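Sequence in, structure out. Go.
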Amino acid sequence: DSNIFYNIGRFPGGCAVNDYNKDQVLYIKASNVNILNNVFYNNLSAWNISLDGTLDVPGGIENITISNNTFYGDNPQRDGHINILFNVRNPVIKNNISHTPGPYFIENDSQSWSDWSSTYGKGYAYNNLVYSASEATRLFNFTPTKNWTWSGNIESQNPEFVNLGTYDFHLKSTSPAIDNGIDAGLNIDSE
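Output:
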């Protein structure tokens, strides 16, 4: 936790036709992982976080918490800051700020949300703020219809960072994100 990840990903045309599909900042293929209080920005050819419980991970992955992170910048070829692949059980995504993720913050890349298997357990998305100045931005690419609980999320409101031009992601006193999170028990601020 408390890391700053920036300018990650290869240049277009470097290795394959679909360069933008190959890179991730954090590629999680393990259970019981907490991703807390980090800043991700300018990762223009990578998903910031990919959760992957696919075939080579027996039983999939479970109990992943993504909390109190700041995400800024769009991957021009892939939407979302978080990508969820098959067999990810009980993810908790809370208290994050996502600025300019494309049309949505969380992409379920494996299936439609309506088919989220009950064997995957529940998914939770609480008190995230998702914003883009250039387009309407949603929390999910598909609205979950079963086995997900979400509440307190803020969509399409500017988080009011102090200065995007200098990557100062502190919040102005008028930010709608202030006092709208769930207490995560963190006593530090990575900024």
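Check: The radius of gyration is 16 Å. The mean pLDDT is 83.
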